[in-house]
Amino acid sequence: MGPEPVAWIASTGGDYKITVACSDRSGPSGRYEIELRDLREPSETDVKRVDAQTKFYAAAEKDRSQEKDTRTAAIQLYEQAASIWRELKDRYQEALCLHRIGAIDSDLGESEKALASYQSALTAWRAIGDRFGEAGTLNNIGVAYYGLGDQAKALENYQQALNIRHAIGDTAGESVSMNNIGILYSAIGEPQKALEQSQQVLASKRELGDRPGQIAALQNIGAIYTAMGEPQKALDSFQQALVLNREIADGPGEELSLLIIGSVYRDLGAEEKALDFFRPALALARANHLRRRESDALSGMGDAYFFLGEKQKGIEAFEQALQISRELGDRSGEALMIIGLANIYSDLGGRQKTTTSLAEKQKGLDYYLQALATGRSLGDRFVEVLSLMGAGVTSSALGEKQKALDYLNPARLLFSVARYRPGEGWALYETARIERDRGNLAQASGMATRAIDIIEQLRTKMVSQDLRTSFFAAVKDCYDLEIDVLVRLAAADPSKNFLADALTASERARARVLLDALGEARSDIREGVDAQLLDREHEVLVKLNAKETARMQTLISKHTNEQLAALENAVRDLTTQYEDAHTKIRERSPHYASLHFPQPLSLSEIQKEVLDPETLLLEFALGEQRSFLWVVSPTEISNVVLPKRSDVEKAAQELYTAWSTEGAAVKPEADKALSRMLLGEAASRLGNKRLLIVADGALQYVPFAALPDPDGFEQPLIVNHEIVSVPSASTIAVLRRENASRKPAPKTLAVLADPVFSTEDSRLKRDPRKPVTASARGVDMQLQRSIDDFAMQGMHLPRLPGTRREAAGILSLVPETTRKQALDFDASRATLASPDINQYRILHLATHALLNTAHPELSGVVLSLVDRQGKPQDGFLRLNEIYNLKLSADLVVLSACQTGLGKEVQGEGLVGLTRGFMYAGSPRVVASLWKVDDRATAELMKKLYGAMLGDKPQSPAAALREAQIAMWKTKGWESPYYWAAFVLQGDWK
After folding, report:
1. CA trace torsion 540, 541, 547, 553 (10° rounding)
2. CA distance 654 to 743
3. Which among 173, 245, 316, 408 is least surrounded, fewest beta carbons within 10 Å?
4. What is the pLDDT of residues 306-335, one digit of tens each?
């Protein structure tokens, strides 16, 4: 910022009495009363002064506009005023005009013109010895040199400005200079110096109680952390700035903070969260008439919509933003909006692949080249590098590989020089893809490995599990490329370890957040953390649960779209607050800081630590061009090439739909076709082994137990094989290590079943110990147990009397002294959270399950919602609370619908209840893949527990196999719909 103009009052006749507020740099501040009387006729000089001052204020009025033409008119008026002041030899007023001319030129991207005006202003300040004005202009000269790419001269001028401001005691200006120096250090690849500089500014601003100054410093610190590849710390700084914006009711500042936070979330692949910030940013920008910010918010939303697969919404947002940029004459902004449109037409980076024609890709390439020309003409490196990347990727998609490299190589160099690691990783990945397609496998492998090394460095700096999850989903393609290249290298030279390296790459690509979570599960990360922070987490969780309950209650009653939208927005906001609080606990936990997170296993480690002679690992990896299956025994590894992801997932989804729907007809040979596709070439290697399945994509929904055995296709796979599912082979090793030293619980079985969901329940009017019969309630035995995605069919939670009979059947297998029965009101959250529950090796939950695929942390099981006095109580045990349980159970059985499902996240798998109970302490979980039939489930559970707890106790995996075979052989229940939904996930031993 430059020096502000000082009021100058002139009279052309008459008497005046004026009261003004004065804040002179050399005198005290206050209110002054000034009397003006005409003593003479105005001279020519007086008239010129009035003319100059009039032009100055007219220029200042136009200066406030964001329209290019209006600001250009302001320059003309400033020039006219400066000319008059120069004639009158008033160097101070002349300098003010020149300084403002430079500021406008700088805003319009005319750095060289700005520099010339600033230099003239500097000469004038020095001539009259105005140190304040000299420092302001030196600072802005630094900005101009920075815009021209001359960092050395920029730093020199920033430092001169800082020295003067320090000498004259200008603390506000001193902070500005220090911030600029920090930004420059970051740009020239010295982020640590930049960080130190900005942290000094923040400390100074806090000492002065200067909240606007703190906001600026926090935003600079956030920007530096972003450049350093530490998005978690960046978000923390930006969030602090947002809080301060709101405290001082700074609408434009709040809008900027929202915009920045949304951009960070977008870049990390958390598009839904990004939109939660971009939308209010857009509203504030419009309310405050901030046209450029409005354009930025629309641009962010355009990116987010595109990544979410909402192509048309993305185009509409970018077209609105482009129109605004053109109205403002903002050529750099216009180029960025053109790049956004180009990304959509080229389908560049879309997480949800859309159908893009060659004509659209060519249109995208034309847009990139248009933006590239603009970026180079303006000297805008950011526009240039994004245009180069887009042009390179699109040229490759159009089959022009050499042209693509001609664009990508300079882009990679620009990212490298700027030391922007995420961009460098992106450029390496895209170049590796081209080298693979050209057959240069060694080069492709080296580049893919370097790209993944950058990804791994970035992920270690993210404390938030949500951010790690979305980040991994965004970069999963890079791991897929590495796998594909290594398999090609293995085919070219089988003597090398490429196939083993490909399996290791597959393990690196999946369930990493779960692996990290399991690594921290037995560490009390809350110990030693500030009690206020723990209270804050609890407070937000209580509010979140209350709002989610209110949302569900709203769904089952009459409501307007506005009422529901308000509650959904509140749930989203509280979910973010909860994750932020939980992240801060991790950041400040001494135990978390000392954790060494488990690393994915290599082939030899999998063979030694996970497998046994009776177990084969079948690990799938679905790819864009082709997919893979590894068949691994303790001594051997082989690989099968499968069709591309889209073909595999289409077949899997069709079969899942048929199997999971009662009475649905399976297309002839559809189940055999999928089995042949997945396992046909591996059939000779399966024998009668236990199969450890690591699925991918839509295969996670397929119960492999029901697939026809590829050795003849006459019977389901379960007949000759125990089937166990795991997110990755590495998770088994971690589960075993975490539970190796744990003593077995002394008792056998705890069952929670038949909770009370309603105040209308008859158990409130009679002895709750008296059993309820089906006839007494007239309950349809085909009643489904779950309410998918909170849609709540029938708009109520029906009672589940079948679970009571289910409980009675399995409890009868266990002596009374070693079992726990929690029915009716006792089937509650309090029971499940009590220390007594850790006395039991098996925990069986028979109730409703609620699946929320948008917010998996709000999925959960429903326990008693009413106490014995008929008072409502919180009976929803959600995933984020399950994580906080401390269980000693060796096995958790979730006898409810769809408990094995969750939100499918690329690279992470199904994020849902199963992993929550694993984190809580159980090494194995039995869960369901679809809405289960009550009668069939009760029978299956009886057979499962009979095999586990009978005279010859079997392992859970073997017992589930025996129960499912028995169901398959039972007339009327042969269909997989009745017996195949339940799968064992976790350790089979």
Report:
1. -170
2. 44
3. 316
4. 888 888 999 999 999 999 999 888 888 899
Give CA–CA dist 926/894, Å, rounded.
6
The pair phi, psi for residue 925, each rounded to 5°, is: -140, 135
**Residues 6 or more apart from 651 whose CB is under 8 A from it?**
670, 673, 674, 677
pLDDT at 878 over 50: yes
Is the four-CA dihedral 158, 160, 164, 167 of positive or negative sign?
positive
Backbone angles phi, psi at 750, to 5 degrees: -120, 130
Find the mean pLDDT for residues 371-389: 88
Q: Which residues of 577-589 are buried (b: 16+ CB within 10 A; e: fewer)?
A: bbbbbbbbbbbeb
Residue 356 CB neighbour total at 10 angstroms? 19
CB atoms within 10 A of CB 653: 15
Contact 857, 880 (CB under 8 A): yes
Pairing verdict, β 891-895 and 924-928: parallel
Locate tokens 């001279």: which residue?
Answer: 43
Pair of tokens at residue 177: 């200079």
Hey, what are 345's tokens? 């037409």
Cα Rg of the chain, angstroms: 34
Residue 367 CB burial class (10 angstroms; 0-12, 13-18, ≥19): buried
Tens digits of residue pLDDT in 207-249: 888 888 888 888 888 877 776 667 778 888 888 889 898 888 8
d(CA 827, CA 821) in angstroms, rounded, equals 9
Answer left, alpha or beta for residue 34, where phi above 0 means left and psi between -120 and 50 means alpha: beta
Nearest residue to 844 (alpha-carbon basis) of 778, 899, 767: 899
Residue type, 8: W
In whole angstroms, how far apart are CA 429 and each of 191, 482, 622, 936? 25, 9, 18, 50
* Proportion of the chain above pLDDT 90, given as a percent: 36
Cβ neighbours around 663 below 10 Å, total? 6
**Of 806, 802, 750, whose CA–CA distance to 941 is shortest?**
806
- Between CA 156 and CA 161 the distance in angstroms is 9
**Where is mean pLDDT largest: 90-94, 264-268, 768-772, 857-861?**
90-94
**Global pTM exceeds 0.70:** no
Structure letter (DSSP) for residue 7:
P
Q: Report the Cα–Cα distance between both ends of the chain, in Å, rounded.
A: 68
Residue 974: φ, ψ to 5° = -65, -30
Number of residues in the chain: 989
SS3 190: coil
Please tell me the distance from the alpha carbon of residue 259 to that of residue 238, in angstroms, as a whole number. 10
Contacts of 28 (CB under 8 A, 6+ apart): none
Question: CA-CA distance, 783 to 667, in Å (whole number)?
Answer: 26
